[in-house]
């Protein structure tokens, strides 16, 4: 899997989708760790919905309008601002989907492209919700079946390589991370959602990775060190680390290494 790919589009049936709805929203903290500051967010949704009836009848009443989906999301953001974090946006969209749109499964992606000073591609959250597991009768929203976090295009200057000239000057490597967070055993929080072990300070995680010892001969060693650091210091169940050297080969845009490590495999 390449750094900008993901398993966001692993659909099994018909899908109605919105791709890259751009909004400005007060959510969490900005790149300078300030609260209540509007920042850009990019939202994509994929709703599994059987469109066979509408395909035969050509009747909009037998499907779900993507125009209505967009309108509902925009209204939800305005109504709920300020929003605590990216994941809360997902819960609100899932509530909209299974109360108003129908469908069997929902995938949501939210990207905050300007939320980090170091990660040029920003931070992304991806979730999957299953319709028949979603409790419409309760005021407590059902948890997603999957939550995936991504940190994109973190650039690090380091001594990397085995050649003599590579040991003389630092070069840029581009790091992409995908990971899942552990859940706590403390039970639901006040909103009814299962609490995560701690509230992750994304900028702290990024800073820790960016200041890790920066002299290695191989990308394999650097990737392993970053994975071990993240798993030891933060409540992650697993992490995928992709590191690329844009200047490694003259005829190649980038050469890199990608590894996945589970928390139990991290050294104690």
Number of helices: 5
State the helicity in percent bands.
10-25%
Question: Which spans of ≥5 residues are poorly predicted at pLDDT below 50?
Answer: 1-5, 184-189, 191-199
The mean pLDDT is 84
> Main sheet, how many strands, which sense, barrel?
9 strands, mixed
N- and C-termini, Cα separation:
29 Å
User: Gyration radius, to the nearest Å?
Assistant: 21 Å
Q: What is the number of strand segments?
A: 11
Order of helices and strands: EEHHHEEEEEEHEHEE
Structural class: alpha+beta
Question: What spatial form do the alpha-carbon principal axes imply?
Answer: elongated
Beta-strand percent range: 35-45%
Summarize it:
The protein has helices spanning 52-57, 66-80, 86-101, 202-210, 219-233, and strands at 15-26, 38-48, 105-112, 119-130, 146-160, 171-181, 183-188, 194-196, 215-216, 236-245, 255-262. By secondary structure, the protein is of the alpha+beta class.
Secondary structure topology:
Blueprint: E1 15-26, E2 38-48, H1 52-57, H2 66-80, H3 86-101, E3 105-112, E4 119-130, E5 146-160, E6 171-181, E7 183-188, E8 194-196, H4 202-210, E9 215-216, H5 219-233, E10 236-245, E11 255-262
Describe this protein's structure.
The protein is of the alpha+beta class. The strands form two sheets. Strands 1, 2, 3, 4, 5, 6, 9, 10 and 11 form a nine-stranded mixed beta sheet that branches. A two-stranded antiparallel ribbon has the order 7-8. It contains five helices and eleven strands.
Features:
disordered N terminus, alpha+beta, two-stranded antiparallel ribbon, 268 residues, elongated
